């Protein structure tokens, strides 16, 4: 499966329109997937009496107050900042040390390789939930409670198993012939790693990077235990705090949840294109 | 990016230079993992033998008492049963739907990147938001019942969240909605690795679209599907956030949606029985481990054998 395919013989034509039934199915699916999200966003434009009278109705009249109120509050932006820093720190950490370890597991022969892989694979069976109490004590002893690194470091640890499980087959699929050709040209294994592997594995790195970013952005339990100071709250904690503070004000809660999912959606829609580019560009080059 | 190291002749066998490379490359990951994952988990195992309220050093050693209590508690049996249902139903429901999505999106049709983007939306949204949103949609006076009323199906209205006969299916719908995007991502990445020439050659030989999918795409996707199955099973065993946010700590067990982890948080942390909670964590781990080992032994063997033993 791991051959380098040459697609230069396939003629490039414009995309056909295809079967209309496919579009019909796609339309229904998209409706089902987006319906609840659209409900949240529209709900934020209504007020509570509208929601009580007609739970499934459209905004009438449209109210902007819920959104503008939140956008003008410093709390929301501070939580966006915290979430961004935690997610970026986690992603960079997981991808950098994850691809290094995956390279060793995929392309070196040494005693203990099986054990090392099994160790990381076993990590899939520990959600942070399982170890949350001891983890809290550990982070407290390191003096990192209520700090963002206190969340980032455990998240890197818990993100490694998925990253490694996905990257190892990816790195193994890089054909032996490329490595041998590089060796003939005088490239060491490390040189091969820096010059070839990283470039060839870009699609895999983007995939694990996105997964790590989203997992961190959406993470709830770890920050819940490790961040008690409101100033360090990430967005999910913010949503929880906000919805209990305004539990009777459904419209406001809907607006807050809508706004807090926007950054992740924007991030994903930007990088989703990169995945496609990476997948078609990397090995096929 | 770091400068490439100086060129030197390639070594065979495992010399000190290679050992150093292995240590430098894998060291940071191993160290982080041991400190922040393995060490706390081992500690959880240790606390599980104590009756411990969470203050200071645990001193009240109770041996296997916590484990006896867990295995005899019918709420834990319920949670285990729910987890089992969620594992099986997730595979049976999400697998085929995701495969259909991925096949559809793998076709070269107009607008597929937009369709793909939109299908991933629920996967990108956090559990807290999904939970908050769906509880508002599904409450008795919520939008789902409102729509049923509006289209004349008022008799279908239900208490989707509290009715114990329905709640687990409601949960399955939400889980499918939320996590299908992950399966589709994996399947589509797997499909990118299948050489187009195979399908093209088959088409030249007169194979229909469905024949190509059945005989070429799906079989070659099998390793990806098996990996997804593994991740899905583990995820289902450890389900927590969504159930806890939608059903809360009291309702999950009466609605029939409690899981082992919600049981652990409710009986352990919320009741301040930290020793007991850690013992539940150990039981959960052992169950996950057994299922994972069986799965790896019988299902993933073909994939991991290549990865770990032949050193290709």
Structure write-up:
Chain A: Belongs to the binding-protein-dependent transport system permease family. Chain A: Residues 80-271 form the ABC transmembrane type-1 domain. Chain A: It is a multi-pass membrane protein. Chain A: It holds the Pfam family BPD_transp_1. Chain A is mainly α and 285 residues long. Chain A has 2 domains: 20-63, no CATH class; 76-281, MetI-like fold. Chain A has 13 helices and no strands. In chain A, helix 7 packs antiparallel against helix 10 and helix 10 packs antiparallel against helix 13 (250-281). The model of chain A is unreliable at 1-13 and 276-285 (pLDDT under 50). With 312 residues, chain B is mostly helical. Chain B has 2 domains: 16-47, no CATH class; 74-308, MetI-like fold (Orthogonal Bundle), CATH 1.10.3720. Chain B contains 14 helices and 2 strands, in the order H-E-E-H-H-H-H-H-H-H-H-H-H-H-H-H. Chain B has helices spanning 16-47, 65-72, 74-106, 112-119, 121-124, 127-138, 143-150, 167-192, 196-204, 209-237, 241-255, 260-270, 274-298, 301-308; strands at 50-51, 60-61. A two-stranded antiparallel ribbon of chain B has the order 1-2. The radius of gyration of chain B is 24 Å and the shape is flat. Chain B starts with 15 loop residues before the first helix and ends with a helix. At the A-B interface, helix 1, helix 4, helix 5, helix 6 and helix 7 of A face helix 1, helix 4, helix 5, helix 6 and helix 7 of B.
